[in-house]
Design goal:
Helix content: 25-40%
Low-confidence stretches: 399-427
CATH class of the largest domain: Alpha Beta
Radius of gyration: 22 Å
CATH superfamily of the largest domain: P-loop containing nucleotide triphosphate hydrolases
Mean pLDDT: 85
Structural class: alpha/beta
Oligomer: single chain
Strand order of the largest sheet: 5-6-4-7-8-1-9
CATH topology of the largest domain: Rossmann fold
Distance between the termini: 22 Å
């Protein structure tokens, strides 16, 4: 099947073709007809599968062929509301709408905190058809009378699992209470967790259900490797790998905001171009860092899990887990930043003895062991003992796990340089 066979209008097909895409991904092949049918939808798809286009394209199709919504004074008001968990994802989704709707007369705006409200107010006054927003800023606008929700006929909850993880459930319920009762609801999530099922039961009416990837399965196109290392030599090893293999566009994950800042500063001290992105950074700083990273001007971007949601870079070659996440599902989300749309990617984890229990949980989740490779000169001290790890207000760890969980010696002493980026795929990326 091609996009030409899906009943989309010529202006949309032209925009899709200009982005270099001809063949829909599985979530698009199933999701586009379901959205066009007008019913509710519950869809589970891992990051990088093209889910944004799965709802963007059919919504543009429908909006282009139905009258605009207007208030009592004849002003254009939104018909579609897309709620997302982070500013970065909001910007990415809005970019998708603009890219695919470039030959339509529809208007889209993005609405998130951390920036001034006046430009957003001005955009609403000019009239918009689609609003892409984070929950808090959207409620701020509605509370101040800037946003008229009476014309909303479609609600999209994108990355709903992450919104629940971030504590947005109360904001989501407030939003639902403000919307017209008769509307189409589209819920997209990486997994069908129990919390997602509960949300879906209260929100969706006889939904079509699509699940295109098995729950919590890492992309098969991502080569995964663990480098065992002493806890105090991680930064030294990371700098060595980056400089030894001349890596560029390296996305590095830490568990905390403070850790992200500190690591970025240390890498800069090592002569490596690096910056950090996390929730405490101003929106301007986050946008500049992300822009420099996407363009290839910034060699390394250090990010926390929440800030990294919405980072969408075609053919991102490498993800590094400087610190393993204590929630194993987050590992799958992290490495899903690379190896997208069939392209090859690489995920490297620097693991000290403190994190062996995290590694064990990750391998249980993905149902396979991850290859260990020692880097010559950076082998961990076998006498080093596990220390507790503080995650927020929780302290995890202490005694070393069973001997069988210790990193295994490598067959090869050094790590090969990552493969080239390869040709760009022909499927819309999951923004």
């Amino acid at each position: 099947m091609t996009f030409d066979q899906m009943g989309l209008a010529e202006p949309i097909l032209r925009a899709v073709a200009e982005q270099g895409y001809t063949t829909p991904t599985p979530i698009q092949a199933q999701g586009i007809p379901a959205v066009l049918a007008g019913g509710d939808l519950l869809a589970a798809a891992q990051t990088g599968t093209g889910k944004t286009a799965a709802f963007t394209l059919p919504l543009l199709q429908r909006l282009a062929h139905t009258p605009q919504a207007r208030d009592a004074k004849g002003r254009v008001i939104p018909r579609v509301l897309v709620l997302v968990p982070t500013r970065e994802l909001a910007a990415q989704v809005a970019d998708s709408v603009r890219d695919y709707g470039k030959y339509l007369t529809l208007r889209c705006m993005v609405m998130y905190g951390g920036v001034g409200m006046q430009p957003q107010i001005d955009a609403l006054r000019r009239g918009v058809d689609i609003v892409v927003a984070t929950p808090g800023r959207m409620l701020d606008h509605q509370g101040q009378g800037n946003l008229n929700l009476s014309g909303i006929d479609t609600l999209v909850l994108d990355e709903a699992d992450r919104m629940l993880d971030m504590g947005f459930i109360h904001d989501i319920r407030r939003v639902l209470a403000l919307l017209p009762k008769k509307r189409q609801n589209l819920l997209f999530s990486a997994t069908f967790s129990d919390e997602i099922k509960t949300l879906a039961q209260g929100l969706l009416d006889k939904p079509a259900v699509i699940e295109v990837a098995r729950r919590n399965v890492a992309a098969q196109t991502v080569r995964q490797t663990v480098h065992p290392v002493g806890r105090d030599r991680k930064r030294e090893l990371l700098s060595h790998l980056i400089q030894e293999h001349n890596w560029f566009q390296v996305l590095v994950f830490t568990r905390t905001k403070h850790g992200a800042n500190r690591l970025a500063e240390q890498l800069v001290g090592d002569g490596i171009g690096a910056d950090a992105i996390h929730g405490n950074k101003s929106q301007g700083a986050r946008t500049r860092a992300l822009g420099a990273f996407k363009s290839g001007k910034l060699q390394v971007l250090v990010a926390t899990d929440i800030a990294a949601r919405g980072i969408d870079i075609d053919q991102l070659p490498l993800v590094v887990n400087y610190e393993l996440p204590n929630v194993p599902e987050d590992y799958v989300h992290r490495i899903g930043r690379t190896g997208r749309a069939g392209a090859e990617g690489e995920a490297i984890s620097l693991v000290c003895v403190d994190e062996l229990r995290f590694l064990r949980d990750i391998e249980t989740l993905i149902a396979k062991p991850i290859e260990r490779r020692l880097i010559a000169g950076f082998e961990p001290d076998p006498k080093e003992r596990a220390q507790p790890i503080k995650v927020g207000r929780t302290v995890i760890g202490g005694p070393r796990p069973a001997r069988g969980n210790a990193p295994r010696p490598a067959r090869a002493p050094a790590h090969a340089a990552p493969k080239g980026r390869g040709a760009r795929g022909n499927q819309p990326r999951g923004r």
